[in-house]
Prior knowledge:
The longest helix is centred in the N-terminal third of the chain and has 7 residues, at about 10-15. The chain has one helix at about 10-15, and strands spanning about 30-40, 45-55, 60-65, 70-75, 75, 85, 100-110, 115-120, 130-135, 140-145, 155-160, 165-170, 180, 190, 200-210, 220-235.
Amino acid sequence: MKKLGKILTFLLIGAGFFACSDDDNSAPFEIIGDVFVIKRTIGDEVKYANSYVAWGNQPMSHAEVTTPGGANLTLNPASDNLYTYAKEPGINDYFASAPVEGNYQFLVINEDITHQSVDLLDFDDIAFTTLSSAEMVNGVLSVQWETNSIAEAYLIRLINVSGDVAFLSQTLPTQMTRLDIGANTASGSWSETPEAGNDYTVELMTFRFEDDAISSDAAYHIQEVAVTEQEITWE
């Protein structure tokens, strides 16, 4: 079965606003709920799934989301500090049908008090970004892609055979069309040492953010992610 790298890995690293609160319980509790669509090609078919994240500026003891159709989904802690709860899709959660648009109601509990947040999901079905090539040259992986006029940011990940994120790039601006990834690259971070013969899936992630998102909080307000993939062997 195909193993998918977790999208939340990007969110936990890329979004630091609430994480910087560091147990500052003197500030009022705040919550941001975010639902976004992930688009992938699975078995030669384009499929979609929703991902859910609830961010708090203080630890939470419970989080859930109610869909526009009335379904209730429980979110799980995404980190030890309990500032983030999430529900990420597995491969069986992807379907060919379009996701349900509308208001998603987030409910969380902080210090026995219930708080709510609403996030509107609209769906434009953003286009995949075309991967031109992903080739190894002298121990460096050169990833090149075509310009996507709908993209608001890119990110590149390498997923190992266990489905774990081995490499995570920095968020890339839309004018970029190439990234060179080496063992000691400064353009991202490795969670394992790449070795010759290791197989990876290159994921080129194309982001669309909510219309009112700004650069400082965009990671909390994702609307859609389109993932283009290619298999490579490290050399």
